[in-house]
Amino acid sequence: MSDMQDQTTTTPDAAISASETFASAWDEPKASALSQGELDKLTDDLIEALKTVYDPEIPVDIYELGLIYKVDVNDDRDVVVEMTLTAPGCPVAGEMPGWVEDAVKKVEGVKSAKANLVFDPPWDSSKMSDEAKLALNMF
Q1: What are the Cα distances from residue 124, in Å, to 9, 21, 65, 66, 71?
Q2: Is pTM beyond 0.70 here?
């Protein structure tokens, strides 16, 4: 064995990476506090809650409009919603995140809710559901 090979196998990083404890901890998925059934129900309930929030200028809910980009739920049932607006200058830009947070907080089992506005990627009509397009005669 060359000196170079000998050095790489005896370094602390190599020893840690090769240990069985490290390997089992690395490969073992963390158990969620929420069962798949609980998470499925919570997801359905969150979608229904988000569908109660409307942009006052558009007769379609924000979920069907495609304004909701991401919803994260941690094991403690804290919910973070990443959302956008149809336009950065939307007149309700300061209020809509609060409306979303209030709707999400009403879902049974949710501990807390936070809605964050993002503008990347920018919203466009391709993010709308077929239901929203039909409601707005955009077919």
Answers
A1: 54, 49, 9, 9, 19
A2: yes
